[in-house]
Description:
By secondary structure, this protein is an all-alpha fold. It is built from ten helices and no strands.
Amino acid sequence: xxxxxxxxxxxxxxxxxxxxxxxxxxxxxxxxxxxxxxxxxxxxxxxxxxxxxxxxxxxxxxxxxxxxxxxxxxxxxxxxxxxxxxxxxxxxxxxxxxxxxxxxxxxxxxxxxxxxxxxxxxxxxxxxxxxxxxxxxxxxxxxxxxxxxxxxxxxxxxxxxxxxxxxxxxxxxxxxxxxxxxxxxxxxxxxxxxxxxxxxxxxxxxxxxxxxxxxxxxxxxxxxxxxxxxxx
Length: 232
């Protein structure tokens, strides 16, 4: 029997909950390095950082991987999941970004397989445990959502929103903005998330182009920072 709409909605809430144990709260996705250089220092520069990251790093990278992995997992095309995981592993040039993606993805997978022990979630968990895949966050997120009766559109939207929430939270902890400004930032970026999520749903593997040299370089620099709050 298919789950009710209410249960599906609550699962979406669960995935976006800060209590969900993935460790994503420890990531700034490159923001800390930009803040240390003084490039991002207020609401306006933060907004620019978010917009560029959403359009490129997510719109042609992680967000697209989540969307494609959803379809492959739904169709039980496990070899395609392996291929996507390998692609994203190669495309994440910065070591800290690559390692963080794997850590978050593995925690997400083990948790979801324990909370919702279904064939699909158990299969993905087994693939991680047997090292058939690294278990990158975007691939696991999309793959798992496919077996929680969550729609592909909701999967992509929640993935983008969760990223935005993490970045804004990091900005507040870095004292770039305050809590009220943080909520204003989230509200102002919602139209962009809608636009990019709709675009992602119409993209294919040929549209992958997640490279952002400036972001990659700063993440590499961040790896060697003497003092830092975040793992990315």
